[in-house]
Design brief:
single chain; 227 residues; alpha/beta; Rossmann fold; Alpha-Beta Plaits; 4-stranded antiparallel β-sheet; 6 helices; 13 strands; 26% strand
Length: 227
Protein backbone atom coordinates (compact mmCIF):
# COMPACT_ATOMS: atom_id res chain seq x y z
CA UNK A 1 0.00 0.00 0.00
CA UNK A 2 2.85 2.41 0.81
CA UNK A 3 4.44 1.84 -2.60
CA UNK A 4 1.09 2.40 -4.30
CA UNK A 5 0.66 5.72 -2.49
CA UNK A 6 4.18 6.72 -3.51
CA UNK A 7 3.46 5.88 -7.15
CA UNK A 8 0.32 8.01 -7.00
CA UNK A 9 2.25 10.94 -5.54
CA UNK A 10 5.07 10.76 -8.12
CA UNK A 11 2.62 10.46 -11.01
CA UNK A 12 0.59 13.42 -9.75
CA UNK A 13 3.73 15.56 -9.45
CA UNK A 14 4.75 14.68 -13.02
CA UNK A 15 1.61 16.38 -14.36
CA UNK A 16 3.26 19.74 -13.63
CA UNK A 17 5.72 19.01 -16.45
CA UNK A 18 2.94 18.72 -19.05
CA UNK A 19 1.72 21.91 -20.71
CA UNK A 20 -1.38 22.56 -22.77
CA UNK A 21 -0.67 21.75 -26.42
CA UNK A 22 2.18 19.33 -25.68
CA UNK A 23 2.94 16.10 -27.48
CA UNK A 24 3.38 13.65 -24.61
CA UNK A 25 5.21 10.34 -24.59
CA UNK A 26 3.14 7.83 -22.61
CA UNK A 27 5.29 5.34 -20.75
CA UNK A 28 4.54 1.77 -19.75
CA UNK A 29 4.29 0.18 -16.31
CA UNK A 30 2.33 0.60 -13.11
CA UNK A 31 3.41 4.17 -12.29
CA UNK A 32 3.15 5.31 -15.91
CA UNK A 33 -0.37 3.87 -16.03
CA UNK A 34 -1.33 6.03 -13.04
CA UNK A 35 0.07 9.07 -14.87
CA UNK A 36 -1.96 8.22 -17.99
CA UNK A 37 -5.10 7.93 -15.90
CA UNK A 38 -4.44 11.32 -14.31
CA UNK A 39 -3.65 12.85 -17.70
CA UNK A 40 -6.95 11.48 -18.96
CA UNK A 41 -8.72 13.39 -16.23
CA UNK A 42 -6.94 16.57 -17.36
CA UNK A 43 -7.97 15.94 -20.96
CA UNK A 44 -11.56 15.38 -19.89
CA UNK A 45 -11.40 18.76 -18.12
CA UNK A 46 -10.25 20.48 -21.31
CA UNK A 47 -6.48 20.11 -21.55
CA UNK A 48 -5.24 19.76 -25.14
CA UNK A 49 -2.47 17.21 -25.57
CA UNK A 50 -1.56 14.48 -28.03
CA UNK A 51 0.06 11.26 -26.92
CA UNK A 52 2.54 8.80 -28.40
CA UNK A 53 2.30 5.53 -26.43
CA UNK A 54 5.20 3.15 -25.77
CA UNK A 55 3.16 -0.06 -25.80
CA UNK A 56 -0.17 -1.52 -26.85
CA UNK A 57 -1.15 -1.51 -23.17
CA UNK A 58 -0.52 2.21 -22.81
CA UNK A 59 -2.21 2.84 -26.16
CA UNK A 60 -5.34 0.97 -25.12
CA UNK A 61 -5.48 2.71 -21.74
CA UNK A 62 -5.03 6.16 -23.31
CA UNK A 63 -7.72 5.44 -25.90
CA UNK A 64 -10.15 4.35 -23.20
CA UNK A 65 -9.58 7.69 -21.43
CA UNK A 66 -10.09 9.82 -24.52
CA UNK A 67 -6.48 10.96 -24.89
CA UNK A 68 -5.84 11.78 -28.58
CA UNK A 69 -3.03 9.64 -30.01
CA UNK A 70 -0.63 10.24 -32.87
CA UNK A 71 2.42 8.51 -34.37
CA UNK A 72 5.86 9.65 -35.49
CA UNK A 73 4.38 10.03 -38.97
CA UNK A 74 2.40 12.96 -37.51
CA UNK A 75 5.12 14.48 -35.34
CA UNK A 76 8.81 13.63 -34.91
CA UNK A 77 9.40 15.66 -31.73
CA UNK A 78 7.89 14.87 -28.32
CA UNK A 79 7.73 17.70 -25.79
CA UNK A 80 7.79 15.57 -22.65
CA UNK A 81 7.70 11.86 -21.89
CA UNK A 82 6.59 10.51 -18.53
CA UNK A 83 7.69 6.95 -17.84
CA UNK A 84 8.73 4.68 -15.00
CA UNK A 85 11.93 2.76 -14.31
CA UNK A 86 12.97 -0.44 -12.61
CA UNK A 87 16.08 1.19 -11.13
CA UNK A 88 17.96 4.48 -11.18
CA UNK A 89 21.44 5.30 -9.89
CA UNK A 90 22.99 8.60 -8.72
CA UNK A 91 23.91 9.47 -12.33
CA UNK A 92 20.23 9.03 -13.30
CA UNK A 93 21.11 6.07 -15.48
CA UNK A 94 18.22 3.63 -15.59
CA UNK A 95 17.31 0.00 -16.01
CA UNK A 96 13.99 -0.27 -17.80
CA UNK A 97 12.10 -3.06 -19.50
CA UNK A 98 10.53 -5.02 -16.69
CA UNK A 99 7.23 -4.47 -18.47
CA UNK A 100 8.65 -5.60 -21.80
CA UNK A 101 8.36 -2.26 -23.62
CA UNK A 102 12.00 -1.18 -23.57
CA UNK A 103 12.41 -0.83 -27.35
CA UNK A 104 9.51 1.56 -27.87
CA UNK A 105 10.31 3.30 -24.57
CA UNK A 106 13.84 4.06 -25.72
CA UNK A 107 12.69 5.27 -29.15
CA UNK A 108 10.18 7.60 -27.51
CA UNK A 109 12.71 8.84 -24.95
CA UNK A 110 15.23 9.55 -27.72
CA UNK A 111 12.69 11.77 -29.49
CA UNK A 112 11.75 13.73 -26.35
CA UNK A 113 12.89 17.18 -25.29
CA UNK A 114 12.36 16.18 -21.66
CA UNK A 115 12.15 12.72 -20.08
CA UNK A 116 10.48 12.63 -16.66
CA UNK A 117 10.92 9.38 -14.74
CA UNK A 118 8.40 8.64 -12.00
CA UNK A 119 9.27 6.08 -9.32
CA UNK A 120 8.64 5.01 -5.78
CA UNK A 121 11.51 4.86 -3.30
CA UNK A 122 12.24 1.17 -3.93
CA UNK A 123 13.75 2.00 -7.33
CA UNK A 124 16.69 4.07 -6.04
CA UNK A 125 19.97 2.11 -5.95
CA UNK A 126 23.63 3.06 -5.41
CA UNK A 127 24.58 0.95 -8.45
CA UNK A 128 22.48 -0.59 -11.20
CA UNK A 129 22.12 -4.36 -11.37
CA UNK A 130 19.87 -5.42 -8.53
CA UNK A 131 17.12 -5.74 -11.15
CA UNK A 132 17.94 -8.15 -14.02
CA UNK A 133 18.78 -6.28 -17.20
CA UNK A 134 16.30 -6.96 -20.04
CA UNK A 135 17.88 -7.54 -23.44
CA UNK A 136 15.50 -7.69 -26.41
CA UNK A 137 16.66 -10.06 -29.14
CA UNK A 138 15.48 -11.45 -32.45
CA UNK A 139 14.33 -15.05 -31.82
CA UNK A 140 16.75 -16.38 -34.48
CA UNK A 141 19.75 -15.16 -32.45
CA UNK A 142 18.38 -15.92 -28.98
CA UNK A 143 20.72 -18.81 -28.08
CA UNK A 144 23.74 -17.08 -29.61
CA UNK A 145 23.13 -13.85 -27.71
CA UNK A 146 22.42 -15.72 -24.47
CA UNK A 147 25.86 -17.31 -24.68
CA UNK A 148 27.61 -14.06 -25.48
CA UNK A 149 25.92 -12.19 -22.66
CA UNK A 150 26.72 -15.02 -20.26
CA UNK A 151 30.36 -14.67 -21.29
CA UNK A 152 30.21 -11.09 -19.99
CA UNK A 153 29.40 -12.48 -16.53
CA UNK A 154 25.60 -12.61 -16.45
CA UNK A 155 23.14 -15.28 -15.50
CA UNK A 156 20.72 -15.33 -18.45
CA UNK A 157 17.09 -16.44 -18.49
CA UNK A 158 14.60 -16.32 -21.33
CA UNK A 159 11.51 -14.40 -20.23
CA UNK A 160 8.47 -16.67 -20.35
CA UNK A 161 4.74 -16.35 -19.95
CA UNK A 162 2.74 -18.33 -17.41
CA UNK A 163 2.33 -21.19 -19.88
CA UNK A 164 6.14 -21.34 -20.18
CA UNK A 165 6.16 -20.15 -23.79
CA UNK A 166 8.48 -17.24 -24.64
CA UNK A 167 7.26 -13.74 -23.84
CA UNK A 168 6.89 -11.87 -27.15
CA UNK A 169 7.25 -8.08 -27.31
CA UNK A 170 4.98 -5.75 -29.25
CA UNK A 171 7.55 -5.86 -32.08
CA UNK A 172 7.70 -9.68 -32.11
CA UNK A 173 10.99 -10.21 -30.27
CA UNK A 174 12.05 -12.20 -27.21
CA UNK A 175 13.59 -10.87 -23.98
CA UNK A 176 16.57 -12.25 -22.12
CA UNK A 177 16.63 -11.22 -18.44
CA UNK A 178 20.31 -10.91 -17.58
CA UNK A 179 21.47 -10.79 -13.98
CA UNK A 180 24.90 -9.17 -13.85
CA UNK A 181 24.84 -8.26 -10.18
CA UNK A 182 26.38 -4.84 -9.59
CA UNK A 183 27.02 -3.11 -12.93
CA UNK A 184 30.14 -1.05 -12.29
CA UNK A 185 30.26 0.59 -15.73
CA UNK A 186 26.77 0.84 -17.24
CA UNK A 187 27.90 2.83 -20.29
CA UNK A 188 30.58 0.25 -21.12
CA UNK A 189 28.10 -2.61 -20.83
CA UNK A 190 25.60 -0.72 -22.98
CA UNK A 191 28.24 -0.33 -25.68
CA UNK A 192 29.12 -4.03 -25.55
CA UNK A 193 25.48 -4.98 -25.98
CA UNK A 194 24.98 -2.44 -28.77
CA UNK A 195 27.77 -4.16 -30.72
CA UNK A 196 26.12 -7.61 -30.65
CA UNK A 197 24.28 -8.43 -33.89
CA UNK A 198 20.88 -9.83 -32.96
CA UNK A 199 20.42 -7.56 -29.97
CA UNK A 200 17.52 -5.28 -30.87
CA UNK A 201 17.70 -3.15 -27.72
CA UNK A 202 18.61 -3.36 -24.04
CA UNK A 203 17.23 -1.82 -20.88
CA UNK A 204 20.18 0.42 -20.00
CA UNK A 205 19.02 4.01 -20.48
CA UNK A 206 22.22 6.03 -20.20
CA UNK A 207 21.98 9.82 -19.96
CA UNK A 208 18.36 9.89 -21.13
CA UNK A 209 16.50 11.01 -17.99
CA UNK A 210 16.04 14.75 -17.56
CA UNK A 211 14.62 14.40 -14.06
CA UNK A 212 13.65 11.56 -11.73
CA UNK A 213 10.67 12.16 -9.47
CA UNK A 214 10.94 9.77 -6.54
CA UNK A 215 8.18 9.64 -4.00
CA UNK A 216 9.23 8.68 -0.49
CA UNK A 217 6.40 8.69 1.99
CA UNK A 218 4.49 11.93 1.54
CA UNK A 219 7.41 13.73 -0.14
CA UNK A 220 8.33 13.80 -3.83
CA UNK A 221 12.05 14.38 -4.40
CA UNK A 222 13.37 15.72 -7.71
CA UNK A 223 16.73 14.37 -8.85
CA UNK A 224 18.57 16.21 -11.60
CA UNK A 225 22.14 15.97 -12.74
CA UNK A 226 24.34 18.82 -11.59
CA UNK A 227 26.08 20.48 -14.47
Amino acid sequence: MANEQEKQAAARHSLSFVRDGDVVGLGTGSTAAIFIQMLGEKVKAGMKVRGIPTSTRSRDLAKSLGIPLITFADCEQIDVTVDGADEFNPDLDLIKGGGGALLREKVVASASREVVIVTDSSKQVPALGKFPLPVEVVPFAEALIAGRVAALGASVNLRQKEDRTPYVTDEGHHILDCNFGKIAEPAKLADQLNRMPGVVEHGLFIGMASVVLMSKGAEVVEFRLRG
